[in-house]
Amino acid sequence: ERERARHAEPLRLGVPLEDRVQKITALSDLARTLREEVGATDALDQGLAQLLLTEGRLSIQLGQESRGAVLIEEALSLLKQAAESGPLDDEHLRSKSLGLILLGDIDSHQARLSDALPRYRQAQQLSLALLKSAPGDAGALSSVGHGHLRSAHLLCKLGRYEEGLPQFDPAIETLMRAESASPEDATHLEPTATAILEKIYAHANSHTP
Fold first, then answer.
1. Phi, psi of 98 (to 5 degrees)
2. Which residues in the chain land under pLDDT 50?
3. Distance (Å, whole) CA 119 – CA 117
């Protein structure tokens, strides 16, 4: 019981990244053990998947992309199993979309651009589905905007400017909507500015008027 209570302590802001990874890893291991003891449930699988996504994202930030990819693939596998028992709820959609974006980022960073693009597009479709049930959801709007932006960036990088350039405008528009939906969240401001700058840069490189 003391060990479980120690793992249940909240994460604190400002702790070193390595310590945060260690904390999340301990929680993931605890959730796996609980799953083995009581059996899989949708709630438990969703919680474990979210822990694995967080652990994977932090591992990527530490430069451990291979480990991060394994964790994210495990999370997506859990979400896939949950989907077999019924349609995904909003939280499942968010988690699956995030997982695909993170795998796409790994592919992009490792120059596997043709692998990254379909992941981004699939994540974007999931976020669009989420927006149908929650039109003002800032997180879903941000995810859709990032999907457009990442796709635009990759297509232009591949020299496919005719496909890539038109995606910048919906990226900017959707990211601005995310800003309006959550004005207190400053994290939406930088992506919008980045999208505008990337659009200018891509137009300059494409020699398109």
1. -60, -45
2. 1-13
3. 5
